[in-house]
Amino acid sequence: MRELSLTDPIGQNIIKLVSNVCFSAFVLSVLVLTAIAITYQPPDPWESTRALTKVFTEVQNATFQTDTSVLKTGEDISPPPDNAPTIDTSITEIPDRENIAVKAGCVDQSAVNCSDPGVLFTIKRFNSRSFKSIVFLDYQNPVNGSKPDECDVAWRFRNRKEKSWRKYRDFRRFRLGYKDDCSYKVIRPGRWHSGLNARRPSSRVSTPGSIQKPQFRDDEINDTIPVLGSDQAFRNGKYLYYARGGDYCKGMNHYMWSFLCALGEAQYLNRTFVMDLSICLASTYTQSNKDEEGKDFRFYFDFEHLKEVSSIVEEGEFLRDWKTWEKNHKSKISVRKVKSYKTTPTQLTRDKSTIIWRQFDAPEPENYWYRVCEGPAAKYIERPWQMLWKSKRLMNIVSAISGSMDWDFDAVHVVRGNKAGNKELWPNLDSDTSPDSLVTKLQGIVTPWRNLYIATNEPFYNYFDKLRSHYKVHLLDDYQYLWGNTSDWYNETSILNGGHPVEFDRYMRVEVDTEVLYRAKTRVETFYNLTKDCKDGINTC
């Protein structure tokens, strides 16, 4: 039989065929890898903002009837920024030797010299071993307590479970003694905010012409309204101004969804967003069960953070500057009025007007702000969730509640309210969250006699009394003094409100409950642990 030769026409055809097949396979693999590279998005190490987008978009109608018993904002989904504050590592820089804190001579053991560096080191070491969930940022030098063997110490910290860089303060009183080798030891640590002598005095704010009890302001909160400074600075700016639309007095989920759409468009157009700080709180959150206007954005969200990470101007300042310019100059400010949300952001990118004024005069739901970000705009307008954090004043309450339990607690989220009464959508919820059922189910999850924080919308305080025979139960109402008329929160929010008291409303309660829940070591959820009912109603799991 004749051998196949490379010079034979049949052999050449076979070689060409094999070459073509290999080349086609190579081209196909390149195309596949290219497609993967283009479409791949790495997962968020905490929780993707796309998940939050899904929460808000998977709704049945435009009123956003979603679960409001837990509220997530930017600090719950974003990793800490690169410019996070420096952590105090001095506790690890000193060799771990028992005689590092020796009192010279060790003569008088009834008194402690709080200025001795060994005292601070001993307290640092005790804190680092006792509070694993806390990142200690810096300490102040200890000062004398109320007794000779007591020292008061203040420090700043952040919680490891919070993704923001925000700093909080604690000051505690420690009773100290000596070991056999005369080194210091902590005999009894104080409770949250017990070290009153180490508390830094707050700035007093006086109201001219009025006689009031002293008011105080937290120096670490700067949520004053920014000003442009001059007519020329106003004239040189480019602004995006949203008129009030149908979103007003809707639920807070709706508000956030629309507000972040507007902020996202301002970023896309590289313009300063004109922001109305006045919020209408929907009736679902108020004690009067009526919509209440005139609520300040700063009651609920961190305006200082928003100022730092975005370009915004307060509406009142903006309108005053605009009026002043029109009064003092012959040349008028150029304004483009946009009548419909159907005018997309891409159609405005080359607009040279000083002010782009979106107006929402159509009937609902055509007059919702978030409509601007629907359709094709959804592909290039990103809602900047990382810019919206909860109010630092509310977060101070969260820290106080968590700190009062020494950061060592478990939590259960018990959803009841209207859902428990709706047997058609949640047939088992009421019975599954009854006091007896809670006792039975939690005993298999939470260790007896642990601190147990209950985040709930159940209105009756004594509803959970049966759990008190098994756990150290804590409810938000146990901490009313944190927003009562002698509290820092009360004084500071009253200043923002023109000297008038501010109601600690249901939305604030949800914000605080949510953040305390996130800080628990063991977290039990209603719709994942306590009941088989679906979170959004029957047949939605």
What gross morphology would you assign?
A: globular
Give me the secondary-structure category. alpha/beta
Spans where pLDDT lies below 50 across 5 or more residues: 1-7, 37-52, 55-66, 89-104, 204-216
Q: N-to-C terminal Cα separation, in Å? A: 71 Å
Rg, rounded, reads: 30 Å
Number of strands: 18
In terms of DSSP E residues, the strand content is 15-25%
Total helices: the number is 16
How much helicity do the residues have?
25-40%
Mean pLDDT: 84
Report the biggest beta sheet as strand number plus sense, adding barrel if it closes. 5 strands, antiparallel
Q: Which features does this protein show?
A:
single chain, 541 residues, alpha/beta, five-stranded antiparallel beta sheet, five-stranded parallel beta sheet, 16 helices, 18 strands, 30% helix, disordered N terminus
Structure description:
The protein has 16 helices and 18 strands. The termini are far apart. Residues 1-7, 37-52, 55-66, 89-104 and 204-216 have low confidence and may be disordered. Strands 1, 2, 3, 4 and 5 form a 5-stranded antiparallel sheet that branches. The chain has a 5-stranded parallel sheet with strand order 12-9-8-14-13. α10 (392-404) packs across α15. The chain is 30% helix and 16% strand. The protein is α/β, with parallel strands linked by helices.
